[in-house]
Amino acid sequence: MPKVTKKTLNLRGNVLDLTTPVVMGILNSTTDSFFAGSRLSSVDQAVERAAAMQSEGALLIDIGGYSTRPGAADISPQEEADRVLPVIEALTRAIPAVWISVDTFRASVARQAVEAGAVLVNDVSGGTLDARMFETVAQLRVPYVLMHMRGTPQTMSQHSHYRDLVPDVLGELQEQLAQLRALGQADVLIDPGFGFAKTPRQNFQLLNQLEAFQTFDAPLLVGLSRKSTIWRTLNVQPEEALNGTTVLNTLALAKGADILRVHDVREAVEAIKLVTSCQQAA
For tag attachment on the chain, is the N or C end more exposed, with fewer CB atoms within 10 Å? Predict the structure, then answer.
């Protein structure tokens, strides 16, 4: 498997070095995210939690206003923007050192978010739910997280049939990546899409073969935090899935993950430090 050489991101003129993996903290400006501990009830609470994440070692904060848990209710682009824009603007003022990512599959929300201070667009749909997304991020000249998903957040559980899981996911991402490159998009991160149109068994299979995603020569973002693959396998609730998250994050790091997207920053930072120390001692 070729070694990934692309280990930096240009965040509006600032270079993020991914030679050592980094942590992206999750902030959900929603009322129905699957993990209650990630929900925000006010802008002030968002600023407080983001500051705590930064103090624990998060370099990126991912702000979302649309719940993508299976079966979540659909909301309008305006409502989504109304949820995330005040948080982005407040964080930009209060914690200027933190880099803000917007978690959205809508081009209009992405554009408004970047104008408000976001420096990265994290699209769970890989451009499949808004035909304007690829052109928009290319125009905005910000890094883009290309994630694999089929269907919509409401229907994705019905689209988990694959002829051959890993080659199929790689092939679909490759087609989308080619479209982005043709538009001149420079910085793209790859996210295999754990939990999106994939069964628990398929998620474990994807994690087992995570090295295959190095074929893209792009940084790899992994989002396993407290997902149902963990808590259903362990027969616990999302609130009890931190230990399982750390275990799977550790496996992901050993297999090449560059960014861990997590609810619990300190534990992820510690996992990175330990895995990196082990690799350096080899």
Answer: C
